[in-house]
Design goal:
The protein has one helix and 30 strands. The relative contact order is 0.13. The protein is mainly β. The strands form seven sheets. Strands 1-8-7-6-5 form a five-stranded antiparallel β-sheet, with no helix packed on it. Strands 21, 22, 23, 24 and 27 form a five-stranded antiparallel β-sheet that branches. Strands 4-3-2-30 form a four-stranded antiparallel β-sheet, with no helix packed on it. A hairpin with a 3-residue loop joins strand 2 and strand 3.
Length: about 350
C-alpha cells in the first residue's frame, strides 16, 4: 500500500495550540542567511552520561545533561544545525547549536525524539499527538498533528498498552512504536508508519520484543529495526530486521553472536551497509558483557574495526571516529569507551567515558 510523501504534512502543518508545561530555557540561535552560513563540514557529536558535546574542527561546544543509562545515539536536525538528545530521568530534550553553542532545554515528557525537517524535531505525546519544536525559532513546542492509532493487526498477548514513542523518521514516514507490557521485563512493540494521508498499522515484528530502536534506510520507506527476543529477565537474544512500511515486508538479518545478547544503535549508511552495536554475555550470575559494533556482511556479521568499538563514524577514507571499548563490564552497565579520532594516519584521544556518537545526515 503506497502513501504519499509526508514532506507535505511535515512542512505544511502549522501550530494548533501551545502546550502547557513545555518550557524552553536558553536562547535560540539567531536566524542565519545563506551567505552567513557557517561551515559544518566535519562536524560530529558525542555523549557521555552527563554531557552532550559537539566537535567542530578544533572547537568543542558543550551542554550538560543527565542522560543516565541511555545508550541512544546523538541525533542531528535535518539541516545539521543542532545536535540533540533526551534526558532519561527528567524526560527533557537537550539541544545544542552547532553554530554558536546555545543550549535549549524543553520539557517534552518523552524518551525519544526524531528530526522531522530543517531544524524541527518531533516526539510523541499521549494520548495521541505528534509534538514539534523548531529549534531555530523562538516558539515553544506545540502540537503538529493529532493522531488516532488504529487497532494493531497483531493481537495483544496478554499485556496492556503502555505508551508510545517516535523511533525514526524520513521525508515520507514517521515510525512509531507502541508498547504492550505486563510489567517488569515483559514487553512487545507494535509498529505504525504515519504518512501524509494514512496511518499504516504494521503490528509486531516477530523476534523483536523489547528494547526496540530503529534507523531510516536510504530509500525513505524502509527502516532497520534492532531489539531483543525475550527469554528471561536475565537473558535475551539480539535481533535485527528491515521493514518496508509500504508493503509491511520484513526481512530478518542473520543472528548475532552470543549466548545472551542485545543489539542497539542501528545505522543504515548511504552505501547500503547496516551496522549495529552488539552486547553479549553468558547466562550465569555475575557474568560480564562485551560490546562491539558489527556490520552486515555476506556471511553474517563482521566487526567494523580491528579492535572492539562501541560506536564508529567513518567520515572519509582519511578520517575515522571511534569509541573504543575497554574492559568487560557488568551486564547492566551502560557501555562506555575512549573517543579516538584517526585522521591522515594520526591518532588522538579526545574524551573518555563516551557512550555514543552522531553526525549530520
Amino acid at each position: 500500500m503506497g502513501v504519499a510523501r509526508a514532506g507535505a504534512w511535515i512542512a505544511a502543518l502549522g501550530a494548533v495550540g501551545l502546550v502547557a508545561g513545555c518550557g524552553v530555557e536558553g536562547t535560540p540561535a539567531p536566524v542565519i542567511t545563506p551567505n552567513q552560513q557557517p561551515d559544518r563540514s566535519g562536524v560530529f557529536a558525542y555523549r557521555t552520561e552527563g554531557e552532550l558535546v559537539v566537535v567542530r574542527g578544533a572547537e568543542t561546544l558543550r551542554a550538560s545533561g543527565n542522560f543516565g543509562y541511555s545508550a541512544a545515539p546523538v541525533n542531528f536536525t535535518r539541516d545539521g544545525a543542532f545536535a540533540f538528545a533526551v534526558e532519561t530521568a527528567s524526560k527533557t530534550l537537550v539541544a545544542l547549536s552547532v553554530d554558536n553553542g546555545s543550549v535549549t532545554r524543553t520539557e517534552c515528557d518523552c524518551t525519544d525524539a526524531v528530526a522531522l525537517r530543517d531544524a524541527v524535531v518531533g516526539w510523541w505525546r499521549e494520548p495521541g499527538q505528534i509534538m514539534s519544536q523548531d529549534l531555530a525559532g523562538t516558539t515553544p513546542a506545540e502540537p503538529e498533528r493529532d493522531i488516532v492509532l488504529p487497532d494493531s493487526p497483531s493481537p495483544l498477548s496478554g499485556g496492556n498498552w503502555d505508551g508510545a514513542r517516535l523511533v525514526a523518521a524520513t521525508d515520507e514516514y514517521v515510525l512509531l512504536a507502541r508498547s504492550e507490557s505486563r510489567g517488569l521485563w515483559w514487553e512487545k512493540n507494535h509498529l505504525y508508519a504515519i504518512g501524509s494521508d494514512a496511518i499504516l498499522p504494521l503490528g509486531r515484528v516477530p523476534g523483536i520484543d523489547s528494547e526496540l530502536s530503529a534507523a531510516a534506510g536510504p530509500d525513505g520507506h524502509t527502516f532497520v529495526l534492532a531489539g531483543t527476543t525475550a527469554r528471561s529477565s536475565s537473558c535475551g537474544i539480539g535481533f535485527v530486521a528491515t521493514i518496508d512500511v509500504r508493503s509491511n515486508a520484513v526481512s530478518d538479518l542473520p543472528s548475532v553472536p552470543g549466548e545472551c545478547s542485545t543489539v542497539y544503535n542501528p545505522r543504515w549508511s548511504g552505501d547500503n551497509v547496516i551496522s549495529v552495536a552488539v552486547r553479549k554475555w553468558a547466562d550465569v550470575a555475575g557474568a560480564t558483557s562485551t560490546v562491539d559494533r558489527l556490520r552486515s556482511a555476506a556471511q553474517g556479521w563482521a566487526p567494523v574495526a580491528e579492535q572492539p568499538v562501541i560506536d564508529m563514524l567513518a567520515r572519509s577514507e582519511q578520517t575515522v571516529i571511534q569509541v573504543v571499548g575497554g574492559e568487560p563490564l557488568a551486564a547492566r552497565d551502560t557501555p562506555q569507551g575512549v573517543l579516538v579520532v584517526e585522521k591522515g594516519g594520526a591518532r588522538s584521544e579526545l574524551a573518555t567515558e563516551v557512550v555514543s556518537l552522531g553526525s549530520p545526515i
